[in-house]
Amino acid sequence: VLRHWDKVRTIRVALLGLGTVGGGFVRLVEREHARIRDRIGLEIEIAAILVRDREKDRGDVDRSLITTTAVDVIDAGCDVVVELVGGVHCAGAYVRRAINNGSHVVTANKALLAATGRELFDAASANGVQIGFEASVCGGVPVVRALRRGLAGDSLESITGILNGTSNYVLSRMEDGLPFADAVKLAQEHGFAEAHPTLDLSGEDAAQKLEILTSLGFDSEVVSRSVHGIEWIDVDDVARARRRGNVFRQVAEARRVAGGVALTVAARELPLAHPLASVRDENNGVVFRGNAVGEVMLTGRGAGSLPTAAAVLSDVIEIGSA
Ligand code: NAP
Ligand code: HSE
Prior knowledge:
single chain; 25% strand; binds NADP nicotinamide-adenine-dinucleotide phosphate; binds L-homoserine
């Protein structure tokens, strides 16, 4: 293994949120930090953690790091503020403050980026800091890096994928015969769903992710947006589709059309031989179609604690190694 470093550097992290993803991030840092230090010379130190409820059981997490006062964490002078609280209003205020303080930001928050991404990236650029957002699309699957780096030399024709783990998990459980409401409850128990699961089931979460991928992959404006969810599908619809040799998947697609890019999110009945039909449970799958490269497909865990934390940690490492 090549060593590219002489002296170990320390990156101090302020963590906002200790829920599904934040808790996974703390566990993963604990598990991986020695390997990261030895391999790339980066020591990751979580210096402060923001939560809403101080009394909740936090397992093994060092309670002396935990506070409910946002400014104590954001203004702690850390190199990176990792935003994992979710939502748009508080999270947006926290991220703006971090950027104005000169801290880099890492976030998994696609709702925030879809709503205010342009303003936040302008502010980051004015303050000379980076925003890492690998975890905001497809959880642990590195689609953001694939688009920004691996496919940077090609012109994209289309992006087609399953971008919402909860909807995919619900459709998969219905294939096993579970009613819709029970499947949604299970997805919530696993921590896959948003705080408001309507965002997942209505197609809006997938649309937000598609917008992020579109802004990375296409230079043209979005000229149309059509978003439909999976709420109308019940376990009998799924069984009938199976008898026809098909499965339902919530498919998000960005496609070059005259004058720009058209975005659609809708449940589609796919034949079993379709590459997205075999993407089950909370997994996501994305097919990028490039002019030169043809089709490139990435699949993997699109939601959940540790997979998403792995993407967050990859951004922290990238910022710390720059
Ligand atoms: P979560 O389990 O609900 O955790 C949210 C955490 O933030 C909790 O620790 C909560 O504190 C804290 N929090 C919420 N609002 C706060 C506020 N106003 N001030 C201070 N702390 C606050 O959420 P999550 O599932 O980890 O999701 C976090 C973000 O990651 C969201 O943007 C989500 O879209 C994104 N994401 C999630 C997944 C996933 O699989 N779950 C995957 C990819 C991306 P308490 O613990 O005290 O309640
Ligand atoms: N609620 C989201 C999903 C989390 O189910 O895909 C991952 O972004």
